[in-house]
Amino acid sequence: MPKSLISIHDFSKDEMLHILDMAAKFEANPFQTILKGKVVACIFFEPSTRTRLSFETAANRLGARIIGFSDADNTSVSKGETLKDTIKMVSNYADLIIMRHPLEGSARYASEVSGVPVINAGDGANQHPSQTLLDLYSIFKTQGRLSDLSINMVGDLKYGRTVHSLLQAMSHFSPLFTFTAPDELMMPQEYKKYLLSKGISYRETKELTEYLNDTDILYMTRVQQERFLDPIEYERVKNVYSLNASMLDGCRSNMRILHPLPRVNEISTDVDSSEHAYYFEQARNGVFTRMAIIAYLLGKEI
Amino acid sequence: MEKHLKVSAIKNGTVLDHIPAEQLFNVIDILRLYTIDKQVTFGTNLESKLLGKKAIIKISDKWFKDDEINKIALIAPQAKINIIKDFEVVEKKVITIPETIRGIVKCMNPMCVTNHQPVTTIFTTIAVEPEIQLLCHYCEKITDNKNLKIISNY
Ligand SMILES: [Zn+2]
């Protein structure tokens, strides 16, 4: 079975650092068409324009050709073809498959039936490892290191898969975690146990401003209405977890704000012009990180 | 010794005792006892100090491999396995929950690929005490004791 990237656990600490190193090289010189003659399949069983464009840009920059579909409606899938048959067919045509699918575990299954590497571009609420690697790259770029940082995660820490993956990936680098969340959306017990087992400390708060001044990375996430039974409670939480420029006065000069985007109202637009805002550059970093992942899985070194 | 055997003794074979009564047919299913051509006798809703109501299965001239018999540990953790030769118990086996479980258990996550595509489930046993916790190889979610459902072979 060729090496795939399905879950952040699939990459060791050294492999993650290697990906970041390659991403930096691609950023320094984005014109490296080392995948000329290769075919990359982007198969999206549910639409996600943002992720698809980022991956397709990455594959294009590497000189690969792209085939695929952007939602399953007009394909053989909608005619009842099994996932296995679709993957078998596509892996006959392509050198690498980038897949997004609403079912959890679908990407792992695809990597087991595919003859070529698979990159998981999101399997339902489960994993989205390229997002985690681009987050790591953004943290590394803004802080100059990954180790011993104060990482403050804010918002939906219960359901947010990006924070869970980032937590696991950062656990290699002895961080101090802060979990800022309302009661309804607190970091689940299983992740706190995981941190304890690795000897990593964390603190929890409901107040966004409480630990803001000793934070290096402020990782904001979207608080989604559908997580709340009570619409009044949602309104309250939404307003409490909204960052604005006046809150940033006392924070560290190296502090940077990350957000997987799209944002709704977690970050007020008056933060955008602050030196602490980094979420748009973060999205740009995604292309270099994905170039690195694709090249690495196809055995190309730069 | 039982004074009056509710299920008659066998000369050679395997006796599975202390099965929770409600799990009898799941045990038969997991071990695929309906496919073997040897004598199988069973009794259920028998009195048990340990379980309240228990079931017992006796299979003549049949011995199981450990990894085969361990599959029932998920639903009958207190089961006692006696190997019979010439009407005597020659070996008692303790069953343990396997580290990897293929098939048998259904993933409790309704969005898991194994509940929508023809995929055999695979779990890693991550805890046995105080309750069984199985980690799904595909969706990476945990199925625990309370939500443990057996996939029927039928
Ligand atoms: Zn599952």
List keywords for this structure.
heterodimer; A: 302 residues; alpha/beta; Rossmann fold; 2 domains; 5-stranded parallel β-sheet; B: 154 residues; mainly beta; Alpha-Beta Plaits; SH3 type barrels; 5-stranded antiparallel β-sheet; 4-stranded antiparallel β-sheet; 11 strands; binds zinc ion
Helical segment count of chain B: 2
How many DSSP-defined strands of chain B? 11
User: What do we call the CATH homologous superfamily of the largest domain in chain B?
Assistant: Aspartate carbamoyltransferase regulatory subunit, N-terminal domain
Largest sheet of chain B: 5 strands, antiparallel
What CATH calls the topology of the largest domain in chain A is Rossmann fold
Unreliable spans of chain A are none
Description:
The complex is a heterodimer of chains A (302) and B (154). By secondary structure, chain A is of the alpha/beta class. Chain A is 37% helix and 15% strand. Chain A folds into 2 domains: 8-127 and 286-297, Rossmann fold, CATH 3.40.50; 129-283, Rossmann fold (3-Layer(aba) Sandwich), CATH 3.40.50. In chain A, the strands form 2 sheets. A 5-stranded parallel beta sheet of chain A has the order 7-6-5-8-9, covered by helices on one side. In chain A, strands 2-1-3-4 form a 4-stranded parallel beta sheet, sandwiched between helices. In chain A, α1 (13-28) crosses α9. Chain A is globular, with a radius of gyration of 19 Å. In chain B, the strands form 3 sheets. A 5-stranded antiparallel beta sheet of chain B has the order 2-3-1-4-5, with no helix packed on it. The radius of gyration of chain B is 16 Å and the shape is elongated. In chain B, 7% of the residues lie in helices and 38% in strands. Chain B has 2 domains: 13-94, Alpha-Beta Plaits, CATH 3.30.70; 100-147, Roll (SH3 type barrels). By secondary structure, chain B is mainly beta. Bound molecules: zinc ion. Zinc ion (ZN) is lined by residues 107, 109, 112, 114, 136, 138-139, 141 of chain B.
